[in-house]
Amino acid sequence: HCLERDATADSTQVMLWLVQQREEAGEARQMDTARARSEKLRLDAARRRQEARNSRIQSASLSDWKTEKALFLGSVLLASLKSSLINSLRKKHCESFVALLKLEKKTLKWYSKVPWCYLQQVAAKLNKDHINLKTCGAFISETIREMEHSMYSLSQHEGSVPKLFSSANLAAKREGLPLGPGSDVLYDEVQVVDRPTAKRASNSTSGTRAAKRRKPTAY
Question: Does the pTM exceed 0.90?
């Protein structure tokens, strides 16, 4: 009789455990379904917002592009490119041109005024080739690849600044070009200095050693 009672108790425990496992599995499936539904709703909402932004970009005027914060307010490229070129690029290379402006916006957000000289170089190249829109389109695609590689690859950084931008600032300084809008001085956000040559470094070292050997004058 004791054996029968033990067997019955064991069977009951097993049944209870199986029921509990089924309930937990059912709850887990419900939670997975709820999470999947929530994620789908989030992605759908993000897609609708992106579609609305793209629609706004397409329908907005050039003036809207330049003055609306949600669009491209503060764009160095839009301020520097010829209006006729901008309108042509919107018609012939709209997708890549908008992609460049979005990347520029992110660049200015991350690095403030540091990319200004580089963006001026890009604008100058586009303005120079404005008659050949095919060349402009190819250059825009090349510029996007160059900027993305420089921004997202740590090996392409000097400190916290992409080499692409610091090199453009240094080149502008050497050529005596403006280093910012309405200014001929560097912004505080970036310090561009010429790297010392071996000769200059040697002279500096020699001067330091001489200073160490010089005895203080007695008064």
Answer: no
